[in-house]
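Ligand-bound model needed. NAP.
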Amino acid sequence: MNIGWIGLGNMGRVMAENLVKADHRLFIYNRTKIKAESLVNIGATFCEDPSKVVYLSDVIITMVSDDDAVKSIYSSEGGLFENGNAQGKLFIDMSTVSPETSKSIADKCEKMGAYFLDAPVSGSVKPAKEGNLVIMVGGKKDVYEKVVPVFNILGKKSLYLGDNGSGSIAKLAINLLLGITIQGIAESILFAEKHGITREEMMTIINESAVGTDISQIKTENILKNEYPAAFPLKHMTKDLGLVKNTGTVSPLAKAVEEAFRLALEAGLGEQDVMGITDYLSENKFSKLT
Ligand code: NAP
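Prediction:
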C-alpha cells in the first residue's frame, strides 16, 4: 500500500518511521522540510506539496497540531483537496481536533468521492515510537476494517467507535481525564510539600497506592527534579481542554483544569511538558487561579 504522510512533528515523525520500517512505501510532506530528512534517509519520498502526496498515495494520513493546521492542510492552495486527486482515496486524520472539524472534512471527502476516518491517538512520543498507541476511530466501519493492518503497526490497539467525530470525542474524553490526573498529582504533592512531606515521599506513596498509575510512575522523575522537558507539551493539553470546553462541557473538573492549563499557557509554560503545571501551581502562583 502506498501511504502518504503529512506532519512530521514529535509524534508524526516516529509514527511515519514505523510505517517505513514495516516496508510501506511512504510519500511525505512537512511544512518545515528539514524535519523530513531522517525519513528520506530511510527510504521515504519527500513531496513538495500535499496534493502531490495525494496523487502518489492510496491512503493519506495527517498528524498536525490543531484544527487550523488540519483545515489548512486539506483546503489551502496546494492542499490535499487541490488538483482533483482526492477521488477514491482514503484520508485519515490522527491529529487531536474538534469533532466538528472531523465531521466537516468527512463531508467534503464524501462530496469528492473520497473516504475519511478521524483516528486520534492516546499515548505520547515513547509509545508512538514503540508502536504502542491506542487509536480511536470514527467513520464508516468497512473503511476502518480496510486499514486495521496500518493501525496495527502504529498502535497496540485500535477501536472503531461509530460515525465520523466519534474518534475525536473519545480522544477529548481521555485527555480530559489525563488533564485532571496530572493536575491532581500536582496539587497532591504541593499540598503535602507545604505541610512537610517531601516530593519523594509523596510520589512513593502515590505510586504504591491504589491511585498510582502509569502516568504517575512516568512523571515521577521529572517531578522530583522539578524539570519538565516536553513529552506531551502543555500547549497541546490546553488546546484539548479548550476543545472539551467548546463542546459545551461545563462539568466542575473540566472547567477547573481548563482554566489552570490556560493560565499556565498564558504564563509562558506552553513548551514545557504537561506536568509543568506543577511549577505553575506552586505556592506563589496559586493566587492567580480564580
Ligand atoms: P508538534 O510536534 O507540535 O508538530 C506539529 C506538526 O504540525 C508539525 O509537523 C507542524 O509543521 C505541523 N503544522 C502545524 N501547523 C501547520 C500548518 N498551519 N500547516 C502545515 N503544517 C502545520 O505536534 P505533535 O506533538 O507531533 O502532535 C501532533 C498532534 O498529535 C496534535 O494534535 C497533538 O495534540 C496530538 N498528540 C500529541 C501527543 C504528544 O505527546 N505530543 C500525544 C497524543 C496526541 P512544522 O514542522 O512545519 O511546524
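The pocket of NAP is lined by residues 7-12, 30-32, 35, 63-66, 69, 72-73, 95-96, 121, 124-125, 231-232, 236 (CB under 6 Å).
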